[in-house]
Amino acid sequence: MAPTRLKTPEDDYRKASFKKTIFLFFLVFLILIAATLSLSIGSYHIDAQKIFMVIWEKLASAGTGIETSEDVIIWTFRLPRITMGILAGIGLGISGAVMQSILRNPLASPTTVGVSSAAGLGAALAFVWGVGVGHGRLILIGNAFVFSIIPALVIFGLSRFKKATPEMIILAGIGMFYIFSALTSLLQYFAAQDALKSLVVWLMGDLGRANWRDIRAATGVILVCFPLLLWKAWDLNLMGAGDETAKTLGVAVGQSRLVVMLTASLVTATIICFTGMIGFIGLVAPHICRMVVGGDNRFLIPAAGLFGAAILLIADCIARTVIAPVIIPVGIITSCIGGPLFMYLIIQKKKAYWS
To answer: What is the dihedral of CA 355, 269, 151, 192, to 10 degrees?
Structure first.
C-alpha cells in the first residue's frame, strides 16, 4: 500500500488561492445578475430574454439596425448608467483597498483621507465659477484631479518627513475632509440658483448623467491604473509588515507610497467627476472582502473592486425602485446601506481581520 502523502504548506496555499479565485468568479456572477436586474426594472419593464436579444442584435448589426423603443431605453438610458456604476464601484473599491493597505489603517478610504472632499471642492469651483484646469467639460475633470492630489501629497509628506503614524494620517485626512467640505459649503452659499441645484445633485452622487463618452474616459483611466496597482500589490503586502521590514526586503517604500497614493487619487477623482460624491463603497467593500480573501493584496484589490461594483449596482436598483418613478441619487442609498453595515461589521467582529 502506497504511503499517505502528508499535506505541505504549498498544498494549503494552493487550496486557499483556489477558494479566493472562486470568490472572484462569484463576484463577477453577482455583477452580471445585478446588471441584468437593473436593465429590466423601471417604468418600462423589459424581461431578461428581451434584454439579451436586444444587446445581441445591436452588437451583431454594429448599431446600424432599426432602433425600437427597447433599443433606446437599454442603450441610451439604462446601459450607460449600469456601465458607469460598474466602473465607479471598481474604482472606489480598489482605491479604498490600496489606501487601507498602504496606510495600514482599516479606516482609510477616499473619503476619510480627504481625497473625495478635495475633488468635490475642485468640481464645485467648476460648477459655480467655471474656473479651473482645462476647457469646457475638461474643467470638471482637471479640477477634480488637481485638488485630489493635495491630500495625497499631504499624506505623503507626513509619512515621509514627519514620520507620522497611520492614526495621525487618518486624523489629518479627517481634518482635510472638514476643510474642503467647509469651502464647498461656502461656494454653495454664494452660488447662483441654477449652479447651486446642479452642484447639490452632483454632491449627492448620481449615475443618471452617464454617457458613453464619459464611460470611455473612465474605462481608459481604470485600464491604466488597475494593472499598476495590482503590480504594486506585493510591495503593499511587504509594507504591511512595516516600512523598515519592507526596505530590508528591497521595496522602495517612499516611491511605492507616492505612486500608489497618486494612482488611487487619479482613479477616485475620475469617478467623482463623472458620478459625484458616492460614499462608503471605498470603506465597506475592502472590509468585507478582507474577511473572505484575507490581506493578500493580489486578491484583495480585484475582490474589493468587483464587490464595490456589485454593491453600487444593487444600491442603484434600490434607488430606482424604492419610490418609483422618482429616482433617488445613489449616493444617498450607499450611505444609508454603508453606515449601518459598517457599524454591524465593527460590533460583530470577533477577531481581527486586519493583518
So the answer is: -140
Q: What are phi and psi for residue 323, nearest 5 degrees?
A: -135, 45
**Residue spans of beta strands (DSSP E) within the chain:** none
According to DSSP, the residues that pair with 326 across neighbouring strands are 323
| Secondary structure of residue 328 in the 3-state scheme | coil
Between the CA of residue 283 and those of 220, 260, 277, 339, what are the distances in Å? 24, 17, 14, 10
For every residue of 20-87, DSSP letters joined together read HHHHHHHHHHHHHHHHHHHHH-SSS---HHHHHHHHHHHHHTTT-S---HHHHIIIIIIHHHHHHHHH
Is 144 in contact with 268 (CB distance < 8 Å)? no
Residue with cell 493578500: 296
**For the whole model, what pTM was predicted?**
0.90
CB contact at 8 A, 120 and 153 = no
Helix or strand holding residue 167 (H, E): helix 166-190
Supply 126's cell numbers: 467648476
**Predicted pLDDT at 348:** 65
Q: What is the pLDDT of residue 303?
A: 96
Count of beta carbons in the 10 Å neighbourhood of residue 341: 17
